[in-house]
């Protein structure tokens, strides 16, 4: 069997498999795992089933000497939606990473760059858990607040390549991170294809048209538009290797990768909005052609 066939698919992996696969073997320690029975207080009231980890795996592992704080969402539980408990686990992981940053900076004055922590978030989510309403929305806001707290200290990396993709409020969260790594099978956006079809009709967006879905929200399209920094193959090894390379870069270099936030980026985005108004594209293929892709229809 070839090495390519033996590669473990990131797309097919569960949240826990992804969490374990992103760090060195045997180094992962989970925070608030299933044995802790930290479940949603809201779902039972509505007669809904709970998950003992609330659909999210958090913990710490290592890549070489570097501590990696991992957050990995499980799309098979409520579509990977974020509620009070899963949001709190995300926030707690950020706080642990920032505490580790302060401790390691004091202890490793000579080799801090080699041990500087990184936060890796493996997204698989439709966004807010509607069952939990304001608690889910507040969780999103708190995570965004932690991303800002991490700026200039701990790099925050979004990893997108799972079945559900990354949509809803979590699409905003991913966009606010320092680096976005995607596979071609990954999908990123604000409103998911099924929701667009439900609200606007199949004529507006056919969610069953996989080609349309991927050329609108897929990793390759997002890479072309600059919403994704690194495009990798669909394997756990490829995501881990990309994460390791990104984590080793100086923070100042990673800051230049940010897709939002600076005056230069704002001006660039304003020009893109003007271009979109002029092109009035009926399909993303029109955008690809404009930027010189002679094989846009293939």
H/E series, N to C? HHEEEHHEHEHEHHHEHHHH
Poorly predicted runs: none
Number of helices: 13
Helix percent reads: 40-55%
Mean pLDDT: 91
For the largest beta-sheet, the strand count, sense and barrel status come to: 7 strands, mixed
Strand element count: 7
* Beta-strand residue fraction: 5-15%
Record the strand order, biggest sheet: 1-2-3-4-5-6-7
What overall geometry do the principal axes of the alpha carbons give? globular
For the CA atoms, what is the radius of gyration?
19 Å
Amino- and carboxy-terminal Cα gap:
30 Å
Q: Which secondary-structure class do the elements indicate?
A: alpha/beta
Provide a concise account of the structure shown.
The protein is α/β, with parallel strands linked by helices and 298 residues long. The chain has helices spanning 3-6, 15-21, 84-107, 112-115, 133-150, 169-175, 193-200, 210-217, 219-225, 236-247, 251-255, 263-279, 284-290, and strands at 29-31, 56-63, 66-73, 118-123, 156-160, 179-183, 230-232.
């Amino acid at each position: 069997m070839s090495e390519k066939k033996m590669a473990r698919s990131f797309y097919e992996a569960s949240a826990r498999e992804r969490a374990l696969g992103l760090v060195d073997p045997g180094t992962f320690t989970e925070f608030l795992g299933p044995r802790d029975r930290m479940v949603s207080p809201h779902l039972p009231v509505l007669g809904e089933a709970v998950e003992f980890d609330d659909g999210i795996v958090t913990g710490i592992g290592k890549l070489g000497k570097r501590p990696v704080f991992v957050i990995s969402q499980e799309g098979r539980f409520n579509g990977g939606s974020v509620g009070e408990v899963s949001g709190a686990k995300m926030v707690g992981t950020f706080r642990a990473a920032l505490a580790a940053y302060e401790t390691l900076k004091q202890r490793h004055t000579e080799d801090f760059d080699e041990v500087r922590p990184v936060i890796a978030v493996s997204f698989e989510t439709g966004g807010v858990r509607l069952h939990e309403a304001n608690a889910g929305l507040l969780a999103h806001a708190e995570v965004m607040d932690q991303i800002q707290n991490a700026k200039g200290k701990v790099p925050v990396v979004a990893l997108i390549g799972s079945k559900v993709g990354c949509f809803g409020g979590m699409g905003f969260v991913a966009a606010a991170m320092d680096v976005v790594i995607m596979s071609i099978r990954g999908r990123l956006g604000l409103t998911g294809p099924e929701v667009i079809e439900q609200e606007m009709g199949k004529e507006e967006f056919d969610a069953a048209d996989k080609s349309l879905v991927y050329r609108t929200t897929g990793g390759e399209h997002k890479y072309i538009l600059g919403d994704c920094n690194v495009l990798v193959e669909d394997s756990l090894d490829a995501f881990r290797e990309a994460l390791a390379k990104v984590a080793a870069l100086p923070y100042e270099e990673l800051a230049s990768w940010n897709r939002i936030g600076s005056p230069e980026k704002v001006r660039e985005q304003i020009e893109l909005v003007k271009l979109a108004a002029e092109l009035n594209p009926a399909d993303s293929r029109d955008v690809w052609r404009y930027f010189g892709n002679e094989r846009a229809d293939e």
